[in-house]
Each structure stands twice: as C-alpha cells, then as structure tokens.
Amino acid sequence: MNMRFDILTLFPNFFSGPLDHGILSRAISSGVVQVALHDLRDFTHDRHRTVDDRPFGGGEGMVLKPQPIFDCVESLGAIESRIESSSSKINQLNKSNTESNGSITAIAPKPTRNTSRQSIILLSAQGKPFTQATAHRLAALDRVVLICGRYEGVDERVADLLADQELSIGDYVLSGGELAATVVLDATVRLLPGVLGHADSARYESFGAPDIQPNDPADGKTPDGVPRSTHGAGGILDYPHYTRPADFRGAPIPEVLAAGDHAAIRRWRRQMALAKTLRNRPDLLARAPLTPEDRAYLATLGYPNQRSS
Ligand code: ADE
Fold first, then answer.
1. Which residues, 6+ apart, have CB-to-CB distance to 8 below 8 Å?
2. For a FRET experiment, which of 101, 201, 211, 300 has its CA 20 to 30 Å from that of 152?
C-alpha cells in the first residue's frame, strides 16, 4: 500500500521544484507515495481570500486564522473520524464556537489518529526537533498531513486541537513551514520500501536506522555479493566517501581504500566516522552505542576527557 501526504500551504507552487526532481519525483511516479497539495486560500469565505488576522492581545505581525486550516483538514475525507465523545477538546471547541458548521467530525480525533496510522503535523519553530528517528516513525504511517505556517504564527488552536505533533527542523526561524515540510517529506519518503535503489542504503549513512548496532550481524555482504565495507552508522555520522580519480589535483585518496583489504577498510571507515562525529557532533557520541574498540580509538583522540576542535 502506498503512503499519502497532504500538504496545506499558502504557496502550493513552492513544491513544484522539490516534487519534480530526483528521488521524490521517482517515488511519486512509481506510486510508492502520493502527495496532494492544498491551497489554504481555497478554504476562505471572503472576497479577499483572507487567511490571517491581527493577534489578540496586540503585538507585531499577523497570525494565520484557524478556520481555513480546520476546513481544509475536514475536507480530506479519507481521514476517518468518529463522532467525538462529549469530553473531547474538539467538541468543547465546537460547542463554544458560534461559527461551527458541524463539519468537525471529518477530523480523525487525536487519540485514535495514531492507531489509524495517520498524523497531522504542524511545522513550526516551536515544535519538537525532527530527527531521523521521527522520519522512521512517519515512514510507518499510511497518511500524513503537513500544515505549513506563515506570518508571525499560527493560531494555537491548530497545535492544541488539530495537530497531533508540532515539529521543528532546527533551531532557526524560517519564513514559513514549506521548506520544513519539504525536509520532512524527503527524509521520510526515502525510507519507504522500494524508494532507494539499494534496500540497505538508508541503514548505512549518518544516523542510520534507530536500531542499528555497530556489530550488526547483517554486516557482511550485500545481496549482490559485494563485501560491505562499513558498519551501520548507529547514531554517529557517516564515514568519508571517495571516487575516481585516485589523485585529484595532487590530493590522493586514503591508501587503505585502494588496497582491497575489506576488514581494514571497515575498521578505517568506522574510525573516520568516529573522528568526524567527535569533531562535528560530539553530542552524538554520548548517546551512540560504542564498542570497546570504538572507545579505545576515541581515547587516542582524547575522548571523552578532551574534545577535539
Ligand atoms: N517554521 C519556521 N521556522 C521553522 C522551523 N525551524 N522548523 C519548522 N517550521 C518552521
């Protein structure tokens, strides 16, 4: 069964670049994933197609109104729903909302959404960090709705009552959620079965699958018989890669890679990955599953007693 993404945005054309190239484009045309774009302005009811309004309590900027976002989600019929119990937050909102038109039942209630393998995600700088582990969790779902914020913010009732997750792609503020939605889409789709050329490609890169251990017994030979020359990344950064020419403008490739000793290549790649992680992301080492051999190598670099620069 294929996976479906619905993206709610003020700029549907923003996605024509990312969706039309490379792995995403191939995943869509092969039917592994379906991506539907929804223009929030199509869910406004005034002549000016107004999606934003001034913030209650004063302050800078404009805030995205909840109504076009709720209406758009409610129009996504395949998001199954049950009538909410009277204690539900949605119904409380519904009762107190004089503009309510009864279409609220089209939303899958938050508590049942996870069991129905759906998620409604608000992209915002205030969200929980999006990580490779999040991408793996999303890749196991059938349907994901991504809500892209704009302006100064999104009415908080979207995060409270509609979305079941609020995700941020990093500690910086973007001018909208579209780039973040693209990141989430790309990182998730490439994990779907059949999307990457090699079934194991996604396991042997930075971060790897959450359950990969450095001494993974799957390590050995690839299905086509080529000796696998690396351990699973297992929560650390990927090792350095080289291709032809062996000498580029006087810079040679590391000798070990040309010598054909696969055990030595595996050891070298693991050490380079550890060294790079220590240099660029020492925070990852504290959480990574490390073997005594890893620790012995890291000790030669002064870890954990002293951080490399
Ligand atoms: N919208 C604005 N900044 C964002 C961020 N860092 N992540 C996700 N959505 C955002």
1. 38, 40, 69, 72, 73, 145, 146, 147, 148
2. 101
CA–CA dist 47, 40 (Å, integer): 14
* Alpha-carbon span 68 to 52, nearest angstrom: 9
Beta bridge partners of 170: none
Residue-wise pLDDT for 59-101, tens only, equals 999 999 999 999 999 999 755 443 333 334 333 333 333 333 3
Residues with CB under 6 A from ligand 1: 123-125, 127, 149, 168-170, 172-174, 177, 180
Q: Which atom of ligand 1 is nearest to the CA of 123?
A: 9
Cα 162 to Cα 167: distance, rounded to the nearest angstrom? 14
Q: Given the structure tokens 């049950």, which residue do they identify?
A: 82
Q: Which two three-digit tokens encode residue 18?
A: 């990312």
Q: How far is the CA of 184 from the centre of ligand 1 (A)?
A: 11
Q: Does the bond joining 304 to the residue before it have cis omega, within 30 degrees of 0?
A: yes
**CA gap 238, 270 in Å, rounded:** 9
Which structure tokens are listed for 170? 């990093």
Residue with tokens 């996976």: 3
Count of alpha carbons within 13 angstroms of residue 158, beta-carbon side: 28
d(CA 73, CA 25): 25
How remote is the CA of residue 293 from the centroid of ligand 1, in Å?
39
The residue written with tokens 């379906």 in the block is 34
- The answer to whether 175 and 10 have CB atoms below 8 angstroms apart is no
Q: How many CB atoms lie within 10 A of CB 203?
A: 20
Cis before 245 (ω within 30): yes
Which one-letter DSSP state was computed for residue 235?
A: T
Report the Cα 240 to chain-centroid distance in Å: 23
